[in-house]
């Protein structure tokens, strides 16, 4: 495995597929996942349940040993806690609020920035000391602009597509004949679909947003939004949402469905893949029997260094060269050189040759590979692929018999290619980074240290002992800006 191609579950903590018949306890984010601490030598540790969605105990401190007996009192307290985290308004209430809001005169349409909610006239008073803004009709159609992007670095940072990327995605999917887009964690894509329908220049498309950010319920009807956790496939509104999802996945009048997911990059690949497989399964069951073992067409947007993990879980996917970029991310911006290039790619089970990448952004078609690649990604006759993953021109090493990053040199001592300043002599069999498996650094210096790991510690109250399950992650120094720090670490990956 290569440097920085982090294998997020192979060291440290592993997710255990749910044991049959044994339901996992629930936190406010739905059923928890079963984790197991794995030592460097592969020795297994104790198993425990922890939140599927939050990697920081600050956000959800659920903790329970697998075999732990939980008292009735604690179960009740837990249930009360889970209830208290539910949204204030039901989705139905939100729908009627939205209708009322839409019919208000312009000068009464207000949005509270502090509470992140649309205000009805009777509520202005209560929010008078808060920051509020007027909401135009256009703004009401762009909730992803109106709402402040969530910026919790560990669990739920929202990185919104640039116009360039969201238009590319939508044009591509429309061009391929899809008429229904299941938007999993892609609020901006859903928004663009609805805006485009208003223009009435294109064939209308349907979309359904599945997202954990329930602020969006304020803007969408029940059949446009489901409060959803993509790490455990949990629909917060139960059967009602299940029916909405089923109806959406049913392809009537040959309206082809496609799924587009843009999960938080710190997310664990395995649970995500199993949720997407469940969606696919639901979709295929709803189809006629002759084509029931195909998968739902999908695009999973994720950084390129997760390629091995994703392909392991979803072997029918291919990683495309297209670089997805974001408005509010310091690093993931579009550019042709150096660090400005986004490391975020599309993983898809749609035939790569059908996904036409724009020529004017520097992509070309490789007739040997039968896919569109970055122009800099030259086909290597020896490897018989266009080898570059990171957008730079890679070069072939005849000793390693493969193409490597341009900054790497073959090291005689290690018998492989590496960065010139790698800790030399730490060849095969030596212990590498405990966090990502790389041999080029120790875990202290791991660029992925707190971007791609989960962090759960036992809670003194609930877990009993002060055992630290993920001590590696706790940042020691006070950070100036999470985003800047993260950007720096991710930048280190492209060396
Ligand atoms: N690029 C996308 C946004 C991606 S940010 C766009 O422009 O539309 C990641 C998205 O996933 C956010 O909308 C966030 O709310 C959502 N999300 C984060 N954790 C989630 C979870 N556990 N389940 C479902 N959605 C989640
Ligand atoms: Zn939780
Ligand atoms: Zn090669
Ligand atoms: Zn080499
Ligand atoms: Zn060396």
Summary keywords:
8-stranded mixed sheet, 495 residues, disordered N terminus, binds S-adenosyl-L-homocysteine, globular, 25 strands, binds zinc ion, alpha+beta, 4-stranded antiparallel sheet
How would you characterize this protein structure?
With 495 residues, the protein is of the alpha+beta class. The chain contains eleven helices and 25 strands. The strands form eight sheets. The chain has an eight-stranded mixed beta sheet, sandwiched between helices. Helix 5 crosses helix 6. It is globular. The N terminus is likely disordered. Bound molecules: S-adenosyl-L-homocysteine and zinc ion (4 copies). One zinc ion binds next to loops.
Strand segment tally: 25
Portion in helices: 10-25%
Distance between the termini: 16 Å
Ligand inventory:
S-adenosyl-L-homocysteine, zinc ion
C-alpha geometry: globular
Give the strand order, joined by hyphens, for the main sheet.
Answer: 15-14-13-12-16-17-19-18
Number of helices: 11
Instruction: Let me know the average pLDDT.
Output: 84
Structural class: alpha+beta
From the alpha carbons, calculate the radius of gyration and give it in angstroms: 24 Å
Strand content: 15-25%
The largest sheet, given as strand count, sense and whether it forms a barrel, is:
8 strands, mixed
Question: How are the secondary structure elements laid out?
Answer:
Layout: E1 12-16, E2 26-27, E3 30-31, E4 33-38, E5 44-50, E6 63-65, H1 72-84, H2 91-102, E7 110-112, E8 117-119, E9 132-134, H3 137-140, H4 143-146, E10 151-152, E11 156-157, H5 163-175, E12 178-184, H6 187-199, E13 206-211, E14 225-229, E15 234-235, H7 238-249, E16 256-261, H8 269-285, E17 298-303, H9 307-313, E18 318-319, E19 344-348, E20 363-366, E21 371-374, E22 395-397, E23 402-404, E24 409-411, E25 416-418, H10 460-463, H11 482-493
Parallel strand pairs: 12-13, 12-16, 13-14, 16-17
Antiparallel strand pairs: 1-4, 2-3, 4-5, 5-6, 7-8, 7-9, 10-11, 14-15, 17-19, 18-19, 20-21, 22-23, 24-25
Bound molecules: S-adenosyl-L-homocysteine and zinc ion (4 copies).
One zinc ion binds at residues 380, 382-383, 387, 396, 402-403.
